[in-house]
Design goal:
The protein is an alpha/beta fold and 628 residues long. The protein is built from 24 helices and 14 strands. It binds adenosine-5'-diphosphate, magnesium ion and zinc ion.
Length: 628
């Protein structure tokens, strides 16, 4: 703990005050009680009354509001000398006073001691004083722990919670698969390195760039690479750190950040998750959030406040550009928006090469094959994938990563940890039929993605799994493809139904049915792929604002609603009928495949197709497999 002056003062003050009164109290006690303390011998009240009756008492001094008396009397036991006694009186006794008066005794009364009262007042003051002091001390102490509850007390000062890296050590070569974004940002590096080139011809250097893309696509990495390439410091803060419990903290953090950045310009300021502060103001149910709006306003002010040529470039990242406030996006602020999309097969290959650099790979490992197997994987997923493979390799005590580890790692990243296979039982047979049902439909319908493998080894929640090799072009999906997927997803239940009968179907198809219903509904309400015609009846789900889209969502009548339900039923019913038909027509090969699956636990896609081809014609799907 740091002993600051404030703490020293805090503790010194009460001690001084207490000390002062204590000393004063001690002195005053001595002065006022000189008489009282002189009488050390006590006398009982009864004896005092006897002495009084005998006329021996000459003087009485009353103290403590009449509770104590110092009595001067003639002591018959010691030669009738004048002697002083202390007598405790039974409270306020007016009769005694009258009696003393009548017996001609010199009577005096002393007021209650003032220092006693002072002690009382002091005691009253001291306790809260110490309490507050102590609490303050505790808060100060805990505020030295980052993020501790003591933050509550230091809100006025606002500790800037940004990070500063003098040199990120990341270069553009470490970022792969997002070539367009890299090219656009190459320019930013030139702005930072040679601003004269631009200012000489009167160009205004952009202040900010906004990186938009899903998580894990390399936005943070790109921003660091810019700083690394330009050799400038990298300031970073997350949008969520601006938004705090106390109003005004966010705004003061923005101020702090820009102040520090100006001191070390040229530099990069990176604001991650800017949507946490930069959402449209006043949007959503219940209006805006004052604190966020203040922070956003401060950010806008700061961005307007510095000259375009001051050498600071702000890079912000978000995965939702559509929710950002328009004011952030206008020229002079984040005037460049750069899309950072998940990589395609070629991009994935490049990213795998980057991350394979520091790993020991067996010669037989084909990065192309991995890239082809992993559509939809982001850069972060791929980095994680190779790392998982390396971990598996180490655990298996191998020299280098082989294709087996990579395949296992893919399965693990996609479907979760491997479980122990079931022992042969009725439920194992049922699961086998269910999976073969998926696989056979997927194989026999032309528009379906080809089967990659079928397995009875449980993973994550699933007891068995059928893997398909997805086609590369995921963004445009045809009606035939969606119908094929629905039929394929119903294949599991269809097999259970045909082979074991209506009464034996299981809950294992629950997940499949959920997907089926979702796809069928989307066909009707979003993609215009039903008899209702090309209408968009519902927006896409998962909006960030509760409210914005709820308020102006397209409404449809009750009759349309029931027609939607009717169409969804129709689609699912037709697909289910087709799936059951495939089961009935291919019963012989299905039985053979199930036996093989129970024996081997995993059937590879090629082997699967070969066996099916012995019984029926398998449509050619080569065109759907991505080419590099
Ligand atoms: P984001 O900020 O977009 O969520 P990050 O930049 O934090 O993603 O990426 C996390 C990690 O994933 C990086 O540190 C890097 O190892 C890896 N990564 C992501 N994208 C790429 C890429 N395009 N090239 C190389 N590695 C990448
Ligand atoms: Mg990031
Ligand atoms: Zn299934």
């Amino acid at each position: 703990m740091k002993l600051s002056w404030r703490v020293v003062l805090l503790w010194a003050l009460p001690i001084l005050v207490v000390g002062f009164f204590f000393l004063q109290g001690a002195f005053s006690t001595n002065a006022a009680d000189a008489g009282r303390n002189a009488a050390n011998t006590r006398m009982t009240y009864g004896r005092f009354l006897t002495y009084l009756d005998a006329g021996r008492v000459t003087a009485v001094d009353l103290y403590d509001g009449g509770r104590t008396a110092i009595v001067e009397a003639v002591d018959p036991q010691i030669d009738n000398r004048l002697q002083r006694w202390r007598v405790d009186l039974p409270g306020n006794t007016p009769e005694l006073i009258t009696r003393l008066k009548s017996s001609n005794v010199s009577l005096d009364s002393h007021p209650p001691r003032s220092d006693g009262a002072l002690w009382g007042i002091l005691g009253n003051l001291l306790f809260p004083f110490l309490l507050i002091g102590g609490l303050f001390f505790l808060f100060r102490r805990s505020s030295n722990v980052p993020g501790g509850p003591g933050q509550a007390m230091s809100f006025g000062k606002s500790k800037a919670r940004f990070m500063m890296e003098a040199n990120t050590g990341v270069v553009f070569d470490d970022v792969a698969g997002i070539e367009e974004a890299k090219e656009e940002l190459q320019e930013v590096v030139t702005f930072l390195k040679k601003p004269e080139q631009f200012t000489a011809v009167g160009a205004r250097i952009p202040k900010g760039a906004l990186l938009v893309g899903p998580p894990g696509t390399g936005k943070t990495l790109l921003a660091k690479a810019i700083a690394g390439e330009a050799g400038v410091p990298f300031f970073s803060i997350s949008g969520s750190e601006f938004v705090e419990m106390f109003v005004g903290v966010g705004a003061s953090r923005v101020r702090d950040l820009f102040k520090k950045a100006k001191e070390s310009a040229p530099c990069i300021i990176f604001i991650d998750e800017i949507d946490a502060v930069g959402r449209q103001r006043g949007a959503g149910i219940g209006g805006g959030n004052d604190e966020r709006e203040q922070t956003l306003n401060q950010l806008l002010t700061e961005m307007d406040g510095f000259e375009g040529n001051s050498g600071i470039i702000i890079i912000a990242a978000t995965n939702r550009a559509d929710v950002l406030d328009q004011a952030l996006l206008r020229p002079g602020r984040f005037d460049r928006q750069i899309m950072v999309d998940p990589p395609d097969a070629k991009g994935r290959l490049e990213i795998l090469k980057v991350h394979a650099r520091n790993k020991k790979l067996d010669e037989a490992v084909e990065l192309e094959a991995i890239a082809r197997r992993t559509p939809g994987f982001t850069g972060a997923d791929l980095a994680n994938l190779l790392n998982e493979a390396a971990i598996l390799t180490a655990r298996r005590r191998k020299e280098g990563i082989t294709m087996a580890e990579v395949d296992d790692a893919v399965d693990r990243v996609v479907a979760g940890m491997e479980g122990t296979p079931l022992v042969d039982s009725k439920s194992k047979r049922l699961i086998a039929y269910h999976e073969i049902g998926h696989a056979i439909v997927g194989t026999l319908i032309k528009a379906h993605d080809p089967v990659q493998k079928v397995t009875l080894i449980p993973r994550g929640q699933a007891q068995g799994l059928t893997w398909f090799t997805p086609s590369e072009e995921q963004s445009l999906i045809s009606r035939a493809q969606i119908l094929a997927r629905i039929t394929g997803a119903l294949g599991g239940r269809a097999a259970e139904d045909i082979i074991f009968g209506d009464a034996e179907v299981t809950t294992g198809a629950g997940n499949d049915l959920q997907q089926v219903t979702g796809m069928a509904r989307q066909m009707v309400t979003q993609f215009g792929m039903s008899d209702l015609g090309p209408l968009s009846l519902e927006g896409s789900q998962g909006e960030v604002f509760l409210g914005r889209d709820w308020l102006n969502r397209s409404e449809y009548s009750e009759s349309i609603a029931s027609r939607i339900d009717g169409q969804v039923h129709l689609i699912v019913d037709r697909c289910y009928a087709e799936a059951k038909q495939i089961m009935v027509e291919n019963r012989v090969v299905i039985d053979r495949l199930v036996d093989l699956l129970i024996e081997k636990e995993t059937i590879d896609g090629d082997e699967f197709r070969e066996i099916v081809a012995e019984y029926t014609t398998v449509p050619d799907k080569e065109l759907l497999v991505p080419q590099l």
